[in-house]
Amino acid sequence: MKVTKDTIEHVANLARLNFTDKEKEELILDMEKIISYVDKLDELETSYVEATQHVIQLKNVFREDKVEDYFKREKILKNAPEKKDGCFKVPKIVE
Amino acid sequence: MDLHELTVHQMSNLIKNRKLGVRELTKATIDRIKKVDKEIGSYITIVEEKAIKRAEIIQEKIDKKIAKFPLSGIPMALKDNICTEGIKTTCASKMLDNFVPPYNATVYNKLFLEDTVLMGKLNMDEFAMGSSTENSFYKPCKNPWNLEKVAGGSSGGSAASVSAGLAAFSLGTDTGGSVRQPASLCGVVGMKPTYGLVSRYGLVALAPSLDQIGSITKDVTDCALVLNAIQGHDERDSTSLNIGYTDYTRALINDIKGMVVGIPKEYISGRVNPEVKKAVLDAAKVLTELGAECEEFSLPITEYAILAYYIISSAEASSNLARYDGIKYGHRAKEYKDLSDLYRKSRSEGFGREVKRRIMLGTYALSSGYYDRYYKKALKVRTLVKDNFTKAFDKYDVIIGPTSPTTANKIGEQKDLLKMYSGDVYTAAANIAGLPGLSIPCGTDKDNLPIGLQLIGKPLAESTLLRVAYTFEQNTDFHKNRARI
């Protein structure tokens, strides 16, 4: 599978990552290597096989809907890179 | 024997019989960390003052005869992706360099209630991505058996600290072999329990459908003691199994007569190092002499399981790591134009190379046009892996093979990406299928580097694995070998 610079830039945009041109070149080579490695899976016939999302048969787990103590606001905000008036501070989104 | 060479059960007996004080043991462990960890690099954070204070509290409880045995006063440490309230939890990433969790992981709460003493947080590959602990933002972790070699990974610090006597036991996490492989490379015992046996609440996720917390100990008895403490349902982890308590020390039985052991041909051919292969086949001979019936069989899915593993784990990781956006916690870039620029710069600065590579691979496998071809295909192969093992366990009580195809590499030596990835070839299948896996020492190579024997069982067959491992251990001396440092 050929990986192009366009593909790398498209995927990087989806992943919200920036790369320099040199990093992109390296990524093209790495991704091509990894993708041709995993392409070996094509050898397995799987058209009649069900997908397994999870090894445990997960059912929804319900609990009582009751009010419980949760973290104090200050405790959660302690790790915030920027905060103001008890809120997370972010750049302006709407003009 | 020096204090740091003792197992948990040996320390426990001394503490209980008042021959060893908890403060003395804690202080000795801190002194040893200060003396030798400069060279090894197994710790990211050491909590000296907290540990000493805690030791004094525990000693008081022991004096009042209200302490919890067997783990009372035992010095232990946690991989740095297990959240500890008030103590930095970095995942060995620049992204979380300043992150101090506001809560404890369930496993830490459980160990706290068992009166253990936390010594600190352990080095790892960044966000648990890697098999050598060279991908740590802080420093590579070296192998206590030979400081020029890697400790394995991603729980390299967890394995190296126990191997060097810098903690009596540790917890690591295993997504594709990350507890078993470093345990193998450092000559200690590493257990990855069945998916769901141990709560993941408070574990910083890599790939949630594969991740499992497990123990690293000096011997099999210690492994049972730690599993006793950390198992159990947790309403905060909806994937944790609600199946009641098992006392794993009851599995420590020196008898395997009549057990049927399978050795996958694929695990002892191809890329496996000849010395590793010989040690594994010698171990099979020991089991046969002890009354088990060992036979080789074919598990053709082996080489495909690792491919499915890389797709699934990268896909889940790319989705999970989307939370690191520089807003609520973690690294935030200093200068940015707008919100999108803030996300991109914070993420690009905060994540290391391997993490970005896996996010890219995972995003690619989940992206429109490739989802069916890669992600969905991998999930179907996951079904085949599961079925292959189910069929094998109709016949075998336990499957054995090498944990890792090689012993520890030189630091910086492994540059081939695919060779690096294929290091998990014998371990990842257990995660894909949710099975328990255990690595125990079974020899050393010509350079005196440890070799690990892996045992895989059917879901919740931890007791079977422990019994086989215990029997092997009681009839051999490999577990008595210690790194000389």
What does this structure look like?
The complex is a heterodimer of chains A (95) and B (485). By secondary structure, chain A is mainly α. Helices cover 35% and strands 4% of the residues of chain A. Chain A has helices at 5-14, 21-38, 73-77; strands spanning 83-84, 87-88. In chain A, strands 1-2 form a two-stranded antiparallel sheet. Chain A is flat, with a radius of gyration of 23 Å. Chain A starts with a helix and ends in a 7-residue tail after the last strand. The mean pLDDT of chain A is 91. In chain B, the strands form two sheets. Chain B has an eleven-stranded mixed sheet with strand order 1-3-2-6-8-7-12-13-11-9-10, with helices on both faces. A two-stranded antiparallel ribbon of chain B has the order 4-5. The model of chain B has no long low-confidence stretch (mean pLDDT 97). Chain B starts with 7 loop residues before the first helix and ends in an 11-residue tail after the last helix. Chain B is α/β, with parallel strands linked by helices and 485 residues long. Chain B has helices at residues 8-16, 22-40, 48-63, 106-113, 156-163, 180-185, 220-230, 274-289, 302-320, 339-350, 353-366, 371-395, 417-421, 428-433, 462-474; strands at residues 43-46, 75-79, 117-122, 142-143, 146-150, 169-174, 189-192, 212-217, 260-264, 293-297, 398-402, 437-444, 450-456. Classes of the chains: A mainly alpha (95), B alpha/beta (485).
Could you give a quick summary of the protein structure above?
The complex is a heterodimer of chains A (95) and B (485). Chain A is mainly alpha-helical and 95 residues long.
What is the β-strand count of chain B? 13
Largest sheet of chain A: 2 strands, antiparallel
Helix and strand content put the structural class of chain B at alpha/beta
Unreliable parts of chain A: none
Oligomer designation: heterodimer
Largest sheet of chain B: 11 strands, mixed
List SSEs of chain A in N-to-C order. Answer: HHHEE
Helix content of chain B: 25-40%
- The tally of helices of chain B reads 15
Which of globular, elongated, flat, extended, rod-shaped describes the shape of chain B? globular
